[in-house]
Amino acid sequence: MYLTTFVIAFLISVLATPLTIKLGRRWGIVDRPDERRQHRGEISRLGGLALFVSFVGTGVLIFGLSLAGWWEPIGAEDFKLLTGVLLGSVFIFAFGIWDDFFDLSPGTQFFAQFLVALVAIFFDIIVQRVTLPVVGLTIFPGWITYPLTIFWVMGMINTVNWLDGLDGLAAGVVAIASLLFAIHAYRLGQFTVALFPLALAAACLGFLPYNFHPARVFMGGGSMLLGYAVASLSILAPAKVATALLVLGIPIVDVAWLIIQRWRRRGNPAQSGRDHLHYRLFDLGLGQRQIVGLYYTFCAAFGMMALLIADRFFKLIALAMLGALTLTLLWWLSRNGRKTQ
Hints:
single chain; mainly alpha
């Protein structure tokens, strides 16, 4: 089941991505070089379509094979949760395509993210049971659970969306996170659930050969699809939120830092710019592949900690270390940038 799922999702992504390159150019859905994107020529940003077809298509196939009796049956609870993952993915991707065509305002994007968070809640994809240091297993009441779920889904969508700044960065980090989610779900006995992050990882890995520097295609609105998929899959089992925080700790801290700094400068927190950590490292002189490689290394290392370290206190220490290191680097880069101006 696992090998078949991976191979199918990977092949769909590998075969579909070249088609999105042609379609993007034909329909004029392309990125041109600017202050943020320093590539050469026009590059299709319709690559998210390949990610969508691969991930959602494989998910639908899993449902079909299970209902036909060819694979293990899906329990009623998992069926509802995974339906929420797929339907939410359809909704946010449809909006992402709309955004690719019409370049919608940040306010419209946030509203769509809010709606897809409600889709997750409708299918019981909620942050309700968490294991906290000292306290242990905690079950949140509804007045905490639902706002926290909305915050988590919207925050993860924007984290991945903002991470999509250098070639191969977002797709590679999501692939690492998804593989770790799959391992974690399998270890918890969620054998069917594990197939979905595995399919997401395969979709990203099939897309990467075309998206790695120098990129031949960008994912465009597909970044919001990946963000929702990561957000929803990370809360389908206990302790996967901790895994997501450790894997995506660097981009999460980067997003929080940017929002605070832009508010301090009375700027628009939702406005795109070159003040992200990966852009600052690029402006410092590091190459795109070097920066992406560093992200991959740190995300994989801290993600493995979440799987290998059972004690929640040590996980908290690792998360605090990661946050402190990222904040220190952002502070140093911020000061260095001011001195060179």
